TrEMBL record:
<dbReference type="Pfam" id="PF04166">
    <property type="entry name" value="PdxA"/>
</dbReference>
<keyword id="KW-0479">Metal-binding</keyword>
<keyword id="KW-0560">Oxidoreductase</keyword>
<dbReference type="InterPro" id="IPR005255">
    <property type="entry name" value="PdxA_fam"/>
</dbReference>
<keyword id="KW-0520">NAD</keyword>
<dbReference type="GO" id="GO:0046872">
    <property type="term" value="F:metal ion binding"/>
</dbReference>
<protein>
    <submittedName>
        <fullName>4-hydroxythreonine-4-phosphate dehydrogenase</fullName>
    </submittedName>
</protein>
<dbReference type="GO" id="GO:0016491">
    <property type="term" value="F:oxidoreductase activity"/>
</dbReference>
<dbReference type="GO" id="GO:0051287">
    <property type="term" value="F:NAD binding"/>
</dbReference>
Length: 347
């Protein structure tokens, strides 16, 4: 591989979704070819169809190995898994075939990264129901990566402008999320966030930790987790040398973080972190009845390989219509490049 340009493996996502469209549109950004060698992993036929359907200025180069890729702008390389029957594929529909194809792309890109054939991985959106109908029972990308890399300590980090949000728990019920707010896990996530900020080149390493309950429990009036688990974790993290505040009521923490006061913040559960994050990065145009932009990158921290992703779903309702924004995919690729360079420098 060219050490000056990291090789980035990009998964197709669900073939019935906007995944293939945003992958191709992202690679129509010529600047990306100046800073990385991108290769898509998926079914070449899906990409040939989307290029033809949307009349995009690209010619697919199907390959069977990374070494065969040309990395030429306008001729996106696709590591062809040849596993989608185009006569059966229907945009916007859940199916075991689409789930199997999207899962296979993720598994393959993980294998390529573990083998050193790509320097980082970027994932397109998958449909969890389709993946499960294909017989692969995972809650999402994060869990797939953890399983196939044998990783026990990991966390989801969301990045968009000033907001960098990591989660104590993600794809579990709200009831389970409350039970998972434990001192040891919070300290672990603070460490993962600190390391992630450094990897992203962030200079501000000050971390804010959200409370779980309203008013961060208000001295036990609204729950005991804040005083019993979160505060001891923050105090221990300070002893370990981390610059950290908390627990801070979530309704004030995120507005303060958006100004750049904190380099990163720790959310206690999925929606506590995702809602303010998406309010920042997702811009809906009411007049056009479509998104003007969808920004935000999802990074899995703690893995032995680099994984970034768009932080939006499959958008089945607009799949194949040519209106999907590639903004988040471009940002995910750029983050993968930054993380790759940081890892190369450390090596």
């Amino acid at each position: 591989m060219n050490n000056d340009k990291p090789t980035i493996g990009i998964t197709m996502g669900d073939p019935a979704s906007i995944g293939p469209e945003i992958a191709i549109k992202a690679l129509l950004n010529e600047r990306l070819y100046d800073v990385c060698n991108p290769i898509i992993v998926g079914d070449a036929g899906v990409f040939e169809d989307i290029v033809s359907r949307l009349n995009l200025p690209a010619k697919i180069n199907a390959v069977k190995s990374v070494s065969d890729a040309k990395f030429v702008y306008g001729q996106p390389d696709v590591y062809d898994l040849a596993n989608v029957d185009m006569s059966q594929l229907k945009f916007g529909e859940i199916s075991a075939m689409a789930g199997e194809a999207s899962f296979a792309a993720v598994k393959k890109v993980i294998e390529l990264a573990l083998a050193g054939d790509v320097d980082a991985t970027v994932t397109g959106p998958i449909n969890k129901k389709s993946v499960n109908e294909a017989g692969h029972h995972f809650a999402g990308h994060t869990e797939i990566y953890a399983h196939f890399t044998d990783t026990k300590k990991y966390a989801m980090l969301l990045v968009e402008d000033n907001l960098k949000v990591i989660h104590v728990s993600t794809h579990v019920s709200l009831r389970q999320a409350c039970d998972l707010v434990k001192k040891e896990r919070i300290i672990q996530v603070i460490e993962l966030l600190h390391n992630g900020l450094i990897s992203l080149g962030e200079k501000n390493l000050k971390i804010g930790v959200a409370g779980l309950n309203p008013h961060a429990g208000d001295s036990g009036l609204f729950g005991t987790e804040d005083d019993g688990e979160i505060l001891p974790a923050v105090e221990e993290a300070r002893k370990l040398g981390y610059d950290v505040d908390g627990p801070i009521p979530a309704d004030t923490l995120f507005s303060k973080a958006a100004t750049g006061y904190y380099g990163g913040i720790v959310a206690m559960y999925h929606d506590q972190g995702h809602i303010p994050f998406k309010l920042t990065g997702f811009k809906w145009n009411a007049e056009k009845q479509q998104m003007d932009s969808v920004k935000g990158v999802n990074i899995t921290m703690g893995l032995p390989i680099i994984r970034t992703s768009v932080d939006h779903g499959t958008a089945f309702e607009i799949a194949g219509k040519g209106v999907a924004s590639p903004d988040a995919m471009v940002l995910a690729i750029e983050s993968a490049i930054q993380l790759s360079k940081h890892r190369m420098q450390k090596a």
